[in-house]
Amino acid sequence: MSKNQRVRSKKTVEERRQDILEAALKVFSENGYKGATTAEIARQAGVAEGTIFRHFATKKELLTAVLEPKIVEGLIVLDQEKRESSPEEFFRCFLKNRLELMQENAGLFRLMFAEAQYHSEVREALFHGILGPGIGLIKPWFDKGIAQGVFKPLPLIPTMRSFMGMAMFYGVFGFLFPNLSPERTIDEAADHIAELFLHGLVRSDS
């Protein structure tokens, strides 16, 4: 038995699963969904290709497993940490959290938005692994804001689409033109976007 085989044999099932997810994140980000192969992911993870399919039935299922902890888990933590906050403060923190996520995972977000246009598997992974759970977490905050009279009683999905559209475009614009972003920190960017979205351009005294 080689040294690498001995190291692999000592790992638990969960540790091997995490190795596969980390390798998949790297390969998906570098090669895109279509260009990523389970053989390359297995090589990067140091496992046999068959081991991947003992954990994930399909490449789409593997992509969902890669995306979910990166994108949904941070939102779950934020939801728990901000239980006593106002809906307005929650959405400011939510925006900051998403901007940080995009900054830290630029390759993954390029994969998501570039390849979702062409591959139904990527769109399905995004919907079932991210959009569905994410909407479920955000809706109570949105409803709370309406109930408190803080938010207008607008439909959730179009409103969140506009809100996240502003954040996503800011992230994409920052990737393409980093020298044209005047904000020095993520906090400044989040405050700017949140202020614009929540209160608009029109002055309250106009």
Q: Which descriptors apply to this entry?
A:
77% helix, 206 residues, 11 helices, mainly alpha
3D structure, described in words:
With 206 residues, the protein is an all-alpha fold. The model has no long low-confidence stretch (mean pLDDT 85). Helices cover 77% and strands 0% of the residues. The radius of gyration is 20 Å and the shape is elongated. The protein is built from eleven helices and no strands.
Order of helices and strands: HHHHHHHHHHH
Give the amount of beta strand, in percent. Answer: under 5%
* Structure classification: mainly alpha
Q: Which residues form runs of ≥5 with pLDDT under 50?
A: none
Quantity of strands, as a count: 0
Please give the structural blueprint.
Elements: H1 3-9, H2 13-35, H3 38-45, H4 49-55, H5 59-71, H6 73-81, H7 87-104, H8 106-115, H9 120-147, H10 156-176, H11 186-199
Helix pairs in contact: 2-3, 2-5, 2-8, 3-4, 5-9, 6-7, 7-9, 7-10, 7-11
Briefly, what is this?
It contains eleven helices and no strands. By secondary structure, the chain is mostly helical.
